[in-house]
Task: inverse folding
């Protein structure tokens, strides 16, 4: 009586997971098509579209720009966010809730609205078409993820460690660096990876702000509005593999960072 | 002295959020209201033209429908994961998480490939002899729903799952021992306890859907325009004030609607504090 329903439930779950993976399972093999147009199944196989991507100066420039912006934006978000987690822990009840809410707000408000505001302000100050503006805006939307991930890891650390370091004569900075940071490291690295991909994938702020110099998402967006370019299948597959590997690492680190204390 | 120094570590984050979020959003409000003197002309224009109103209603309907479809599929998925032995759960959760990490742009592109005239679905249908010519799957409302649900579904599963793992399984067992049928135990004990996760998941997906513009722009038809698309189009035409008004309408209606959802659905959430009173 029980087992048929169980099998049915398992089948339905598998079907839903298949639905989640379906588009990428189709695009990945098609990126190895040797045909000039995308059709399924491909008539011939080859690395044509990967070659196009890795030899096209426009695509490469957009990719490097995105990598540069995402690296700096996630670095800023991680540093600033980790520092804020320490400060938040020192605040009392209502203040902590209020400030946390403020730091998390950029994750809740649609990016279109943030993009519009940042763009209009940048117009006023003449700072459009500037990678600096885009990096700072991306840091702000990556910040909530750092505050959530590092914050969760910080709550698992033992405050006595830092106190002990202080008792043994370490200054406040040294005590923080040698006693508090090491157990937080996996959480900080996980937060960095999350913030990196928040920036790397972000379209609308870059679209408004960066007129002439396209980031990778902007380049993909501009291409997709005219035709379904097979090069994008190759780029998609390439970056899906990179993203999934990096995020798997981030997820493992995040889980380890939040479990560390609880398991002993 | 020490404590003050440690609180200073909040300063860079506060400045960043202020400069790149709070001030810009406030600026959008100001731009929409002052044109250049105080006026509600932009809002008047929005609410007096049927074209804009239909886009507005469409955004609300699409977001609510996408959130509801995600709930109907995602809640049972979370329930399935929780029903498995704890050792197997991380793997199942991982399967749901992986698609979430892929770029929304990439996933939308994948749907364009799948649903296109020469796409795999049309190819399969014609190969099987079910249809003579290619069906129009792209640029339809259905395509928008399919792609949005695929993009947002993992969030529902994770939200429901995280609440369900907090539920003490002995409570359901107690209900069964006291004579409740399996269905009754689920409906009277498990469902109210997990309702919080369902409402949170629904709300998060509703918020995210309200701001969507990539999916409707790429796989939707001319009638599937959402508020997000209108904002992007207005920015393209340099109508800042009107774009700002649209942004405010989007933000305020999201907040008001979520407040209403909380108010109405709050009755169905089991709250331990009320039970003790």
Result:
């Amino acid at each position: 009586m029980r087992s048929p329903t169980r099998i049915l439930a398992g089948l339905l779950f598998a079907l839903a997971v298949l639905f989640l993976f379906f588009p990428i399972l189709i695009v990945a093999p098609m990126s190895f098509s040797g045909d000039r147009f995308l059709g399924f199944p491909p008539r011939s196989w080859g690395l044509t579209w990967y070659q196009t991507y890795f030899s096209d100066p426009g695509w490469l420039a957009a990719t490097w720009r995105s990598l540069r912006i995402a690296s700096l934006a996630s670095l800023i978000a991680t540093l600033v966010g980790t520092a804020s987690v320490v400060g938040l822990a020192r605040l009392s009840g209502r203040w902590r809730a209020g400030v946390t809410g403020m730091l998390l707000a950029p994750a809740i408000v649609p990016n279109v609205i943030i993009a519009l505001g940042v763009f209009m302000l940048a117009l006023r100050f003449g700072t459009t078409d500037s990678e600096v503006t885009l990096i700072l805006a991306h840091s702000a939307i990556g910040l909530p993820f750092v505050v959530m991930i590092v914050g969760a890891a910080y709550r698992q650390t033992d405050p006595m460690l830092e106190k002990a370091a202080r008792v043994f004569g370490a200054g406040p900075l040294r005590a923080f660096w040698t006693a508090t940071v090491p157990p937080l490291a996996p959480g900080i690295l996980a937060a960095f990876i999350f913030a990196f991909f928040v920036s790397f994938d972000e379209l609308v702020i870059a679209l408004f702000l960066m007129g002439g110099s396209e980031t990778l998402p902007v380049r993909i967006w501009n291409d997709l509005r005219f035709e379904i370019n097979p090069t994008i299948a190759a780029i998609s597959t390439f970056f899906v593999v990179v993203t999934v590997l990096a995020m798997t690492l981030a997820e493992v680190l995040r889980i380890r960072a939040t479990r560390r204390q609880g398991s002993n | 002295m020490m404590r003050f120094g440690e609180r200073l570590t909040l300063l860079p984050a506060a400045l960043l959020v202020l400069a790149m979020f709070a001030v810009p959003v406030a600026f959008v409000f100001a731009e929409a209201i002052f044109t250049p003197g105080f006026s509600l002309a932009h809002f008047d224009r929005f609410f007096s033209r049927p074209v804009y109103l239909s886009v507005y209603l469409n955004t609300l309907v699409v977001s609510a429908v996408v959130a509801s479809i995600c709930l109907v599929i995602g809640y049972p998925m979370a329930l399935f994961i929780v029903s498995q032995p704890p050792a197997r759960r991380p793997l199942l959760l991982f399967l749901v998480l992986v698609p979430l990490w892929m770029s929304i742009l990439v996933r939308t592109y994948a749907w364009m490939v799948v649903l296109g005239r020469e796409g795999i679905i049309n190819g399969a249908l014609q190969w099987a002899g079910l249809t003579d010519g290619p069906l129009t799957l792209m640029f339809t409302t259905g395509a928008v729903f399919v792609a949005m649900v695929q993009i947002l579904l993992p969030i529902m599963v994770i939200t429901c799952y995280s609440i369900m793992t907090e539920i003490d399984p002995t409570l359901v067992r107690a209900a069964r021992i006291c004579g409740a049928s399996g269905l009754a135990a689920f409906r009277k004990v498990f469902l109210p306890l997990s309702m919080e996760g369902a409402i949170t998941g629904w709300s998060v997906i509703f918020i995210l859907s309200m701001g969507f513009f990539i999916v409707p722009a790429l796989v939707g038809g001319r009638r599937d325009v959402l508020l997000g698309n209108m904002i992007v189009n207005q920015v393209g035409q340099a109508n800042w004030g009107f774009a700002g008004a649209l942004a405010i309408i989007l933000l305020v209606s999201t907040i008001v609607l979520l407040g209403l959802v909380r108010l109405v659905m709050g009755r169905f959430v089991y709250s331990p504090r009320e039970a003790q009173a």
